[in-house]
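Let's do one together. I've listed all components of the complex below, 841 residues spread over three lines.
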Amino acid sequence: MITQARSTLLFTTPIVKGFIQAKKGRQRRRAINFFWLGITGVVTVLALVPLFWIIGYVAVKGAPAINLAFFTELPQGMGSASGGVLNAIEGTVLLTVLSGLFAIPPGLLAAFYAVYHPNTWLGIALRFGADVLSGVPSIVIGLFGYALVVKPAGHFSALAGSIALAVLMLPIIIRTAEEMIKLVPKNLRAGALALGSPEWRAALQVTLPAAISGIMTGFLLGLARVSGETAPLLFTSLGNDRFEIGRLVQAGFRSGQSFPEILYNIIQQPVDSLPLTLYKYTQQPFPAQIQQAWGVALVLIVLILMFNIAARYWVSRQAAKNRG
Amino acid sequence: MQTISSTAGEVTSRELRQPQSPLVTIKGEPLPLTSSKFVLSDLAFYYGKVQALAGISITIPANHITAIIGPSGCGKSTLLRTLNRMNDLIPKTRIEGQVFLDGDDIYSPNVDVVDVRRRVGMVFQRPNPFPMSIYDNVSYGPRLYGVTKRADLDQIVEFSLQQAALWDEVKDKLTQSGMALSGGQQQRLCIARALAVEPDAILMDEPASALDPIATLKIEELMQTLKSSYTIVIVTHNMQQAARVSEFTAFMMIDQNRAGTLVEFGETAQIFTRPKNRQTEDYVTGRFG
Amino acid sequence: MPRQTLDREFQHLQEEILLLGSMVEQAILDSVSGLKQHDLAIARRVYKGDAAINEKRFAIENAILVLIATQQPMAHDLRFLAAMLEVDTELERIGDYAKGIGKITILLGESNINIPVRELDRMAEVGVGMLHKALSAFINEDSDLARTIPAEDDEVDDLYNRIYHLLVASMISNPALIDHANYLLWVAHNLERTADRATNLCERTVFLATGELMEIETSSEDDELDEI
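Okay, and this is what the predicted structure of the assembly comes out as:
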């Protein structure tokens, strides 16, 4: 009886076998697989060629210009092969840091708003605005910085340059931060709110740390992107052969200025940057400057590469820390 | 709406008028007034224009486990979330009727939602430890409510983790990330985190649906130890789980307007052996739909 | 309708329990006709046939346990299996009564004791009739029918009392027949218990249909109390 009882369980659905002939077509399948796999391999190599070509070419051409003075001295004037680009390196770092400071806080707030209130008019406007802004040519943004800061102040400055760069960086930060915040499980925020947490604390202490690795990637990509920009700086920070932070700080101390005053003085100076220097030097007829331009290009590439590597390292470490 | 609620027994119509009256009986004895934790009176809930709950009246006994069962989309979770006002977070929602927590209408305008959520903790379907250490996870709640002294926090963390049956497993790695724990441990961490703010009741929204059978049984055992101090309301798809852990069971279904209604509420033993309602019978025997 | 597999298993169980029921009914009827006719061949067949009844009973029990373990029955399904388990056991016990009657037939052999054929026949007829109706009420989950069946037990009890008095009288008139009269009293007792167990089946039917656990009162039980 038991065998009968089980048999009704087992044989109610007959399983039909023999329709699929496994061996037939195996050869053909393998050949097709091999062919397409080969194509993808070739295309991958093709895509990598320009990258290594550019890096290799710049490294070979730029290497002769690199020496200690290149990093520690100001330019010695056109036609001179000695001297360095300290002004441009310091300017780039200053502009990047300042633009980050200007762009990251509002970018983050905007991203949180866009995620938490996606269907309000402001939320929609924010996302649309970020999309449009990312499509605006950088030279137009340079003009905007000129009109906004340079014209009223009457002089070019690091401040104006970094504001222009911040505007350029803003859409990148908003969009990446938005995507990363969206990826954080809604449960996490709900868990904090269920404990009675106010929204801002849940965002700051729970959601932000959960999304931080992704958001940092966005920051660093944004910084890397603007640190290579030239056009917006032409109208805003202009360039400055004599820019040297150390000298400005010393001069400030000697005249008894306080730290904020020195800082203010620094950001009011017109500054140079690596891309700007690169652009200017390549316009020169002097072989020494052309050589130095190659050196600047190499430093720029290495700098951006370092940004990227740092970003990736930081992200993987953060992810590992979260996972434990 | 009226027709369905009447199937939940005479209880419903009485409750409409007297939300505080003892409506639940345990083994034939009426439940004393002080023993009810939540009293819901003719509750309706809307997502925009869509009605998700209709005519729900139910008395949830204190210090017992009450399970809410029903097919997908019948509003189980929505009902659960009305008990700690988590539905407030969803824009364009609207509630009608009343929810009393220990006699206080938690939707009355002078009630602080933060206070409601402190009194009613919640455990979610997927374990959601915060991206911080085990210690910080558990002390997150107490810190919100102003506990700052390290010694006090230490004590709360240890006590909560012990209550959640997790202390022995994590006491040597409190500084490790809560996300490094296994799924079952993470869920118990979330329970410890909820316990740390000394709630009266804990809502559990399918707390074991993402866990393996052993971890599930651990959570279920934990619920049995917790019920002496807390009122537990659990939403579950798993009828066997509802039968195993709960003393009272509410069966919900959608009515002809696609709004969730209470079909039958009673002692779990009765619901799973002698349901009064035909729909409950069909659902618990798996012959629904 | 989900759970078609389970429903099919249930149907299968019902068929098996009906089969067991008819085996048991036949065994009781055969045992009594063997006794009446002093037919030892029939008696031996009934006696040996109990093994098949026992085997079927265990097979059904096992199938029920497998279903409880694997299918997580609830509500009506659970009551169905619980009631089925009870009915399964009741039927097997009735089978044992038939076996007992067969054994007594063999022990009596060619005894010249006067067998109260008419009364025993009638007892078997009513008892098996009750059993048959109780089983069909059970299969159809007809609690109304189930509630009416136990009343028939009154006639069985009356018959038992009559047989009792007849046998006691024959013991007094001829003390040499005390052993054999006692055997016949067992036969009557077995048939009386058959009807009682049919009543138990009815109670299970009410439980299955309504979830109500209750004893169906019959007037004979009051009589028994009166007698004490």
